[in-house]
Write a structure and sequence with these properties.
The protein has 231 residues and is mainly alpha-helical. Helix content is 59%, strand content 3%. It is built from twelve helices and two strands; from the N terminus they run ββαααααααααααα. α3 packs across α7, α5 packs parallel to α7 and α9 crosses α10. It starts with 5 loop residues before the first strand and ends with a helix.
């Protein structure tokens, strides 16, 4: 693949292609500002880390950028991108794939499409994502850094100066409350997509009646009765 044009944003050198610009426009059009800023920070932090980590330096930089920018389309404030019955990660992965099929043409073959889909679908499951391709890992590392801060950046590869420069162009204001609102909203509007994953913790803490519903959907409660009948 030929070298991509670049620009410096938030102190980070990132690829600058028409498709990445369209991805940014898509995310901005469908996400509230604090959540949009989160995906931008995740993109930039991911590039800081991946460009320093030798195992990640050979990644497809356009795939990484687009996956990071679109990884939370499942949090969209416009209902056309959100399903009634899929986890938000799957919504985001499906939305990103549809965007690429519509906008990228032949430049995104099946393999590149799958890398974007996997990067988004697995970004909340590090126990799997960490064993996937460099693009998946790089996307995860950027997101992890935005939740853990500079001290929790993978391998300590983000400096305080780099962190502050990113936050300056994509401020954190409103993100904590916006994140909580999204997760509790998922627990209220499509709880069946939350019972088997981390979102359930927010339902238990903040959504009335959720704990009682969750108890009936725990994996052990679903599998053990069937196993007992089969013995």
């Amino acid at each position: 693949m030929s070298a991509l044009p670049t620009r410096v944003y938030g102190g980070v050198t990132v690829p600058d292609t028409p498709l990445i610009t369209k991805a940014l426009d898509l995310a901005k059009a469908h996400m509230k500002e604090p959540l949009y800023n989160h995906v931008v920070r995740s993109w930039l932090f991911g590039f800081v880390i991946a460009d320093k980590a030798p195992p990640l330096q050979s990644r497809d930089r356009e795939v990484h950028a687009i996956a990071a920018i679109l990884h939370d389309l499942g949090w969209s404030s416009t209902l056309e991108l959100v399903s009634a019955d899929k986890r938000f990660e799957v919504d985001g992965a499906d939305d990103a794939r549809a965007f690429l099929q519509r906008e990228a043409g032949e430049s995104f073959d099946v393999h590149r499409l799958q890398l974007v889909w996997d990067s988004i679908a697995l970004h909340t499951t590090p126990s799997i994502a960490l064993h996937k391709e460099p693009e998946v890992v790089a996307t995860l590392f950027g997101i992890m850094t935005d939740f853990r801060g500079v001290e929790g950046a993978p391998m300590g590869l983000v400096t305080r100066e780099e962190y502050d420069a990113v936050v300056a162009v994509a401020p954190r204001a409103g993100f904590k409350d916006g994140f909580r609102d999204v997760l509790t909203g998922l627990c209220r509007t499509k709880p069946d997509t939350t019972y088997d994953n981390f979102v359930a913790d927010w339902g238990v803490k903040y959504v009335e009646g959720y704990s009682e519903d969750l108890a009936a959907h725990r994996t052990i409660g679903v599998l053990e009765p069937g196993l007992e009948m089969l013995d």
